[in-house]
């Protein structure tokens, strides 16, 4: 990574967000240090970089996007799309680097490429899987790299070996409870589905301890509203767990209704990449073996295996994380010395990570196989991070929404920082919309949308915080030329959004509030314009249709598009659609809000 590339990006974002040097200094980076960094005369420490991220209201992953040298990470999705010849060249490059540096990560990436090539050609790759398993079983915890590789090789492991890696995964994934990268959703789903295949469906008589471990792990997995497959899996796990506890005919009836809704919605078989499970098959296995499960010594309500796991974060500083990584992965100090990391320097970094320079941090990440996403949740734990955890909007408790929104408004009045205003806008919208779904059509919403839109118009490069505000601002964007420009930006910028916390089709998400406002106003031309852009003109439509959240949202939008022809029948169809949705997700505030919207549309158009 070139220091100048990072300096240029930081300076551009500072100018774009109208952040002064005084504000940079107040955030914890001295004026002289900042200017020396911009001129290429000095680097920043990791802590100084975190202060800048906080001030800019962007994540570490977003800041480093397009700047950091690759590879830090193993993007199995990208590797899987490569032609054989390109994969072979990539393997040769990885092997050459490994021969020079001898870091374990290089050999592990080589094994992954071997597996992808062997699967395509029908060749044996058992030795590659065994080598990766032997490396991973020794680790104390998993980074995103190990989680992703586990999702790749899990189906090739014996149930006993997979269980060892599965336990490490469910311990390690909890660190992402408030900050889950988009890529982790697919990885987690594949690992949980593999667990069901190997430990519930495959055994003649499943071990009740393993069944209970899987159910508890799924129920406690971090999840966001757009991770619908995981939400469906959570509901499924809840119903099986209830049946194990009660052996109740009522629960059997509830599961029958759940599976019927799954078939009608096209999700009875869950699939992600090359891993799939039949929800019906797993359920039949439990039903057929319920007496044998209850006869086993471990009570089905006593999830001992899960309780014995450790969910304490492995580290709270980058120094602790690197110490554990170097020790776990057998990285030799002698090898690190060749890159300028003497033993004394490494031990200083372990003890005092606040003095760690950014370039050194990125080199160590690459060596240890750590992704930028691994550091996003870690950096939020820095002791002098300067931002109260309650302002992590994903972590704000429901009862604190109003108070936190007011505090952010007050902070903005004092600081003038855009991040505080953006947080206030988002929480204020959530509070108003939850209180009354018809707020979208109100005069207050119109004023609120204009304020948000004016803020977004001033920002040349939108990041994750801004993209969460786009659907509010779009309620104010009605001129065709400006609407086209906003939609173009969303389509363009969304292409590289792999680092976001949650998987989102930004275009489909962005138009939703504007569609509902137009529905309440009876502006059918605008409804059709928005839906057409979100679906017909969406270059990511095919990719997005792999995911339930966006497949179901697109189906809803198609109904909105023809609502003007027969409003009553269309709203009935929406009710039926979201009734199935509710059955699959269980009690869900998101579904409740949609039903409330349909109730109000029904009153208006019946």
From TrEMBL:
Q: What CDD domains does the record point to? A: HTH_XRE (cd00093)
Q: Which domain of life is it from?
A: Bacteria
Q: What is the originating organism of this protein?
A: Weissella fermenti
Provide the HTH cro/C1-type domain boundaries.
Answer: 10-63
Q: Which SUPFAM superfamilies match?
A: lambda repressor-like DNA-binding domains (SSF47413)
- PROSITE patterns under this entry? HTH_CROC1
Q: What is this protein called?
A: Helix-turn-helix transcriptional regulator
Q: Where is the signal peptide?
A: none
């Amino acid at each position: 990574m070139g220091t100048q590339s990072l300096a240029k990006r930081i300076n551009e974002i500072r100018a774009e967000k109208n952040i002064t040097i005084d504000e940079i200094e107040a955030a914890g980076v001295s004026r002289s240090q900042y200017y020396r960094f911009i001129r290429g005369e000095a680097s920043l420490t990791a802590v100084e970089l975190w202060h800048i991220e906080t001030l800019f209201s962007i994540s570490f992953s977003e800041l480093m996007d397009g700047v950091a040298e690759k590879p830090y990470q193993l993007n199995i999705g990208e590797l899987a799309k490569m032609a054989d010849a390109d994969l072979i060249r990539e393997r040769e490059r990885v092997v050459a680097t490994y021969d020079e540096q001898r870091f374990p990560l290089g050999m592990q990436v080589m094994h992954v490429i071997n597996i992808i090539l062997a699967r395509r050609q029908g060749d044996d790759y058992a030795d590659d899987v065994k080598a990766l398993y032997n490396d991973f079983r020794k680790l104390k915890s998993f980074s995103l790299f190990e989680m992703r590789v586990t999702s790749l090789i899990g189906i090739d492991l014996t149930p006993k070996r997979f269980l060892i890696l599965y336990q490490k995964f469910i311990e390690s994934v909890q660190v992402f409870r408030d900050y889950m990268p988009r890529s982790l959703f697919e990885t987690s789903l594949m690992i949980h589905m593999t667990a069901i295949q190997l430990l519930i469906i495959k055994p003649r008589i499943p071990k009740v301890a393993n069944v209970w471990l899987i159910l508890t792990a799924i129920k406690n997995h971090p999840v966001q509203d757009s991770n619908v497959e995981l939400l469906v899996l959570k509901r499924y796990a809840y119903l099986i767990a209830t049946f194990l506890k009660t052996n109740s005919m009522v629960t059997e009836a509830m599961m029958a209704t759940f599976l019927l809704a799954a078939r009608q919605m096209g999700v009875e078989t869950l699939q992600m990449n090359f891993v799939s499970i039949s929800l019906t098959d797993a359920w039949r296995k439990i039903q057929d073996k319920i007496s044998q499960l209850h006869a086993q010594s471990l009570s089905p309500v006593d999830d001992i295996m899960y309780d014995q796991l450790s969910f304490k974060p492995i580290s709270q500083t980058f120094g602790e994380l690197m110490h554990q990584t170097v020790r776990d992965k057998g990285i030799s100090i002698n090898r690190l010395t060749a890159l300028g990391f003497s033993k004394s320097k490494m031990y200083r970094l372990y003890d005092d990570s606040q003095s760690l320079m950014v370039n050194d941090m990125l080199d160590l990440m690459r060596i240890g196989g750590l992704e930028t996403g691994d550091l996003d949740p870690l950096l939020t734990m820095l002791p002098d991070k300067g931002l109260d955890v309650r302002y992590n909007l994903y972590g704000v408790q429901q009862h604190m929404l109003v108070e936190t929104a007011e505090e952010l408004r007050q902070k903005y009045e004092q600081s003038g920082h855009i991040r505080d205003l953006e947080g206030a806008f988002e929480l204020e919208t959530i509070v108003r919309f939850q209180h009354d779904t018809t707020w979208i059509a109100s005069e207050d919403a119109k004023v609120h949308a204009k304020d948000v839109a004016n803020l977004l118009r001033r920002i040349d490069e939108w990041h994750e915080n801004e993209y969460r505000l786009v659907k509010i601002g779009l309620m104010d964007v009605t001129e065709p030329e400006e609407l086209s420009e906003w939609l173009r930006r969303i389509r363009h910028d969304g292409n590289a959004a792999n680092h976001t916390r949650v998987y989102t089709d930004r275009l489909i998400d962005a138009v939703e509030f504007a569609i509902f406002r137009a529905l309440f106003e009876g502006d059918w031309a605008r409804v059709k314009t928005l839906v057409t852009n979100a679906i017909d003109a969406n270059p990511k439509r095919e990719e997005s249709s792999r995911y339930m959240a966006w497949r179901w949202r697109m189906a809803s939008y198609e109904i909105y598009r023809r609502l003007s022809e027969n409003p009553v029948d269309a709203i009935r169809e929406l009710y039926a659609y979201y009734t199935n949705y509710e059955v699959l997700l269980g009690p869900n505030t998101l579904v409740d809000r949609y039903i409330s919207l349909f109730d109000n549309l029904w009153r208006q158009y019946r």
